[in-house]
Specification:
The chain has helices at 2-13, 19-30, 40-56, 61-80, 137-145, 151-154, and strands at residues 86-89, 92-95, 108-113, 116-123, 126-129, 132-134. The chain is of the alpha+beta class. 8% of the residues are buried.
Protein backbone atom coordinates (compact mmCIF):
# COMPACT_ATOMS: atom_id res chain seq x y z
CA UNK A 1 0.00 0.00 0.00
CA UNK A 2 2.83 2.35 0.87
CA UNK A 3 4.57 1.80 -2.49
CA UNK A 4 1.29 2.58 -4.30
CA UNK A 5 0.98 5.84 -2.34
CA UNK A 6 4.55 6.74 -3.28
CA UNK A 7 3.88 6.10 -6.99
CA UNK A 8 0.70 8.20 -6.88
CA UNK A 9 2.62 11.04 -5.24
CA UNK A 10 5.39 10.87 -7.84
CA UNK A 11 2.90 10.77 -10.73
CA UNK A 12 1.04 13.77 -9.30
CA UNK A 13 4.35 15.65 -8.97
CA UNK A 14 5.05 15.17 -12.70
CA UNK A 15 2.51 17.85 -13.58
CA UNK A 16 4.78 20.34 -11.79
CA UNK A 17 7.76 19.51 -14.04
CA UNK A 18 8.75 21.93 -16.79
CA UNK A 19 8.53 20.92 -20.44
CA UNK A 20 12.34 20.75 -20.55
CA UNK A 21 12.42 18.34 -17.58
CA UNK A 22 9.70 16.19 -19.17
CA UNK A 23 11.60 16.18 -22.48
CA UNK A 24 14.76 15.10 -20.66
CA UNK A 25 12.83 12.25 -19.03
CA UNK A 26 11.44 11.20 -22.43
CA UNK A 27 14.96 11.13 -23.89
CA UNK A 28 16.24 9.10 -20.94
CA UNK A 29 13.40 6.56 -21.27
CA UNK A 30 13.13 6.25 -25.07
CA UNK A 31 16.72 7.16 -26.05
CA UNK A 32 15.50 9.74 -28.58
CA UNK A 33 13.88 13.19 -28.49
CA UNK A 34 10.08 13.35 -28.40
CA UNK A 35 8.28 13.93 -31.72
CA UNK A 36 8.01 17.57 -32.76
CA UNK A 37 4.85 19.23 -31.51
CA UNK A 38 4.09 16.56 -28.92
CA UNK A 39 1.88 17.96 -26.20
CA UNK A 40 3.03 18.34 -22.63
CA UNK A 41 0.17 16.09 -21.50
CA UNK A 42 1.59 13.19 -23.51
CA UNK A 43 5.05 13.76 -22.04
CA UNK A 44 3.53 13.55 -18.55
CA UNK A 45 1.56 10.40 -19.39
CA UNK A 46 4.58 8.68 -20.94
CA UNK A 47 6.74 9.44 -17.90
CA UNK A 48 3.97 8.32 -15.54
CA UNK A 49 3.40 5.07 -17.43
CA UNK A 50 7.12 4.31 -17.45
CA UNK A 51 7.38 4.95 -13.71
CA UNK A 52 4.42 2.65 -12.99
CA UNK A 53 5.67 -0.05 -15.35
CA UNK A 54 9.12 0.05 -13.77
CA UNK A 55 7.74 -0.23 -10.25
CA UNK A 56 4.77 -2.53 -10.84
CA UNK A 57 6.11 -4.71 -13.64
CA UNK A 58 4.59 -3.31 -16.84
CA UNK A 59 2.44 -5.41 -19.13
CA UNK A 60 1.61 -8.96 -18.20
CA UNK A 61 3.00 -11.80 -20.30
CA UNK A 62 -0.45 -12.38 -21.83
CA UNK A 63 -0.82 -8.69 -22.77
CA UNK A 64 2.64 -8.64 -24.36
CA UNK A 65 1.75 -11.79 -26.32
CA UNK A 66 -1.53 -10.21 -27.55
CA UNK A 67 0.25 -6.99 -28.54
CA UNK A 68 2.97 -8.92 -30.39
CA UNK A 69 0.28 -10.91 -32.22
CA UNK A 70 -1.59 -7.74 -33.22
CA UNK A 71 1.63 -6.07 -34.42
CA UNK A 72 2.54 -9.16 -36.46
CA UNK A 73 -0.90 -9.20 -38.11
CA UNK A 74 -0.74 -5.52 -39.04
CA UNK A 75 2.83 -5.86 -40.36
CA UNK A 76 1.74 -8.83 -42.47
CA UNK A 77 -1.19 -6.86 -43.88
CA UNK A 78 1.08 -3.97 -44.77
CA UNK A 79 3.57 -6.34 -46.45
CA UNK A 80 0.74 -8.01 -48.42
CA UNK A 81 -0.94 -4.80 -49.54
CA UNK A 82 1.20 -4.53 -52.67
CA UNK A 83 -0.30 -7.77 -53.91
CA UNK A 84 -3.93 -6.93 -53.16
CA UNK A 85 -5.57 -3.48 -53.40
CA UNK A 86 -7.86 -4.11 -50.40
CA UNK A 87 -7.26 -6.56 -47.57
CA UNK A 88 -9.92 -7.24 -44.95
CA UNK A 89 -9.15 -9.71 -42.19
CA UNK A 90 -10.13 -9.65 -38.52
CA UNK A 91 -11.75 -6.21 -38.96
CA UNK A 92 -8.48 -4.67 -40.19
CA UNK A 93 -8.73 -3.11 -43.65
CA UNK A 94 -5.67 -1.89 -45.51
CA UNK A 95 -6.39 0.19 -48.60
CA UNK A 96 -3.76 1.21 -51.11
CA UNK A 97 -4.07 4.75 -52.37
CA UNK A 98 -4.04 5.01 -56.12
CA UNK A 99 -0.96 6.59 -57.63
CA UNK A 100 -1.41 10.14 -58.78
CA UNK A 101 -1.55 10.73 -62.48
CA UNK A 102 1.78 11.89 -63.83
CA UNK A 103 1.49 15.05 -65.86
CA UNK A 104 3.82 14.96 -68.84
CA UNK A 105 5.68 17.99 -70.14
CA UNK A 106 3.60 19.80 -72.74
CA UNK A 107 0.32 19.24 -70.89
CA UNK A 108 -1.87 22.19 -70.00
CA UNK A 109 -3.89 22.35 -66.78
CA UNK A 110 -6.94 24.60 -66.64
CA UNK A 111 -8.76 25.56 -63.44
CA UNK A 112 -11.58 28.02 -62.86
CA UNK A 113 -11.36 29.76 -59.51
CA UNK A 114 -13.62 32.58 -58.32
CA UNK A 115 -14.79 33.32 -61.85
CA UNK A 116 -11.31 33.46 -63.38
CA UNK A 117 -9.71 30.79 -65.56
CA UNK A 118 -6.14 29.89 -64.61
CA UNK A 119 -3.88 28.07 -67.08
CA UNK A 120 -0.73 26.17 -66.12
CA UNK A 121 1.70 24.64 -68.63
CA UNK A 122 3.79 21.63 -67.62
CA UNK A 123 7.49 21.75 -68.51
CA UNK A 124 10.47 19.46 -67.72
CA UNK A 125 11.61 21.55 -64.73
CA UNK A 126 8.25 22.41 -63.20
CA UNK A 127 5.23 24.46 -64.16
CA UNK A 128 4.67 27.78 -65.93
CA UNK A 129 1.97 30.05 -64.54
CA UNK A 130 1.61 33.72 -65.48
CA UNK A 131 5.04 33.68 -67.23
CA UNK A 132 6.82 32.44 -64.09
CA UNK A 133 8.27 28.98 -63.42
CA UNK A 134 7.09 27.25 -60.24
CA UNK A 135 8.55 24.06 -58.76
CA UNK A 136 5.19 22.60 -57.71
CA UNK A 137 1.48 22.77 -58.35
CA UNK A 138 0.94 23.48 -54.64
CA UNK A 139 2.86 26.74 -54.89
CA UNK A 140 0.66 27.77 -57.83
CA UNK A 141 -2.52 26.78 -55.96
CA UNK A 142 -1.35 28.91 -53.02
CA UNK A 143 -0.70 31.85 -55.35
CA UNK A 144 -4.20 31.53 -56.85
CA UNK A 145 -6.17 30.96 -53.65
CA UNK A 146 -4.05 32.64 -51.00
CA UNK A 147 -4.31 29.48 -48.88
CA UNK A 148 -2.50 26.17 -48.61
CA UNK A 149 -3.87 23.59 -51.05
CA UNK A 150 -2.63 20.30 -52.38
CA UNK A 151 -1.70 21.36 -55.91
CA UNK A 152 -2.62 18.04 -57.56
CA UNK A 153 -5.97 18.07 -55.77
CA UNK A 154 -6.62 21.72 -56.67
CA UNK A 155 -6.02 20.93 -60.34
CA UNK A 156 -8.05 17.72 -60.23
CA UNK A 157 -5.22 15.22 -60.64
Amino acid sequence: MRARLSIETEVAAMSDLSREELTAQWEKIYKCPPPKGVRRELLIRAAAWHLQAKRLGGFSTETRRLLRSAIDRVEKKIADRDRQPNVVDDDIKVTIAQKRKQVLPGARLVRDWNGKTHIVDVIEDGFVFEAKIYPSLSSIARKITGAHWSGPRFFGL
